[in-house]
Amino acid sequence: MKKVTRKVVCCMLAIGMIASLMLVSDVQAEASTAPVKAHAMVLSQDSFQVNLAAGDYKIANLKSSSKKNLIVRTTYVDADSSDTGHATISMYAKKKGKYKVSFDVVDRNNRVRRHHVVQVFATLEPAVKKVTIGGKSVYDAVNPVFGTRVFPKAGGKIKVKMTKGYSVKAIEVTTYDKSGNGVAKIVKNGKKIKLGQYRSKYVSSNNGPGYEYWYGDLFADTDIRVIYIDKYTNEEGSWYTSVHRLAKKN
Asked: What is the pTM of this model?
């Protein structure tokens, strides 16, 4: 009988320990989520986001596996006890390599609710290698052109060439109408596009009589956003550029 009683007690203790572990796990899981991998360009500021659950949470004990070669800082926190929030951790890599960034998410009493480790790949390779419109170069990572220049064509087929291992998911092209408002379209790689004719413009309507406030761009810009899949993280990334044309009056 004693043996049976001991077995029952042991079973109850085991169940209690499992329930306790599950509870701790649930609390940790609810506190925050963060990526397992991140990608940083050498000598450039990059970042990743930490999602915070509802509650008074913050980032603590932020560390880099190489203080000399990968600088990390918490640069933004939006936390609310009644709603979800997020934090941004920024990185600056001085050298190529693989690094680890670790940090804790703590509550208002500085109790650790979740520990995260993010593997960071620091590279020099650009995701987008080359962009052309109508056969004319818009961007070339190998032979870059610095400064503002007026693009010689009014349109043509847009072709985006990626560095090996990266893939294009979508291309978003934004032009501006006569009122100066942006109009965005998703186009396929290799599709013919027409560049914008009007500049972006903003006119204020909230000021009193006799007061004028507005501003507009010098050129009719066509904004291009390449949405791609990063080969190191398998997550979406974005790359931006603008094509400048002389604008019609608006």
From this structure: 0.80
